[in-house]
Design a protein that fits this description.
about 160 residues; mainly alpha; two-stranded antiparallel sheet; about 5% strand
């Protein structure tokens, strides 16, 4: 048995049904009536901010009794210093006491650094570091050691700023 299809001639001869009307629907000429509003007030969902009331906080804390806890501080779990000295290491005392001239020197150094940065001068910026000083980039965490390396970092920054 052989079946032959030559297409759907009968479907092309019929009109396609459509949901559109021949005439467009006219828009109303009058303004729409006012939208009915609820007769009750809108509830407050978020409370307005209130100031910090220290007296109330102190009264609440005075009523709370301290209870014993089994939680040990982290320092108690750490072993003592291997040398047997449990005291923290002391910082070195400054060799010279601070003076009022130091403040003016620090201000002058900051003014020089700011002026060099605004001029986009990487060589002068790098002179604010010691020969073995380091620069830590807080955005990337990269550490640059040495005045020459710091100068290259500033050279890169300046070229990006000048573009």
């Amino acid at each position: 048995m052989a079946v032959t299809c030559f297409g759907c001639q009968s479907a092309t001869d019929r009109p396609v049904p459509s949901s559109f009307t021949a005439k467009p629907i006219a828009k109303p000429a009058a303004a729409p009536a006012a939208i009915p509003r609820p007769s009750r007030p809108v509830p407050v969902v978020i409370k307005p901010p209130a100031g910090l009331q220290l007296e109330l906080l102190e009264r609440r804390l005075s009523r709370v009794e301290s209870q014993p806890t089994t939680i040990r501080p982290v320092a108690a779990a750490l072993p003592l210093n291997q040398s047997g000295n449990a005291a923290p290491p002391r910082l070195l005392e400054p060799t010279q006491p601070a003076s009022a001239t130091w403040a003016t020197e620090i201000r002058a150094t900051l003014a020089s650094y700011t002026a060099a940065f605004n001029r986009h001068d990487p060589v002068t910026l790098a002179t604010h570091w010691t020969t073995d000083g380091e620069n830590l980039d807080l955005d990337t965490g990269s550490r640059t050691v040495g005045r020459d390396a710091v100068e290259q970092v500033f050279e890169h920054i300046v070229t990006r700023l000048d573009q």
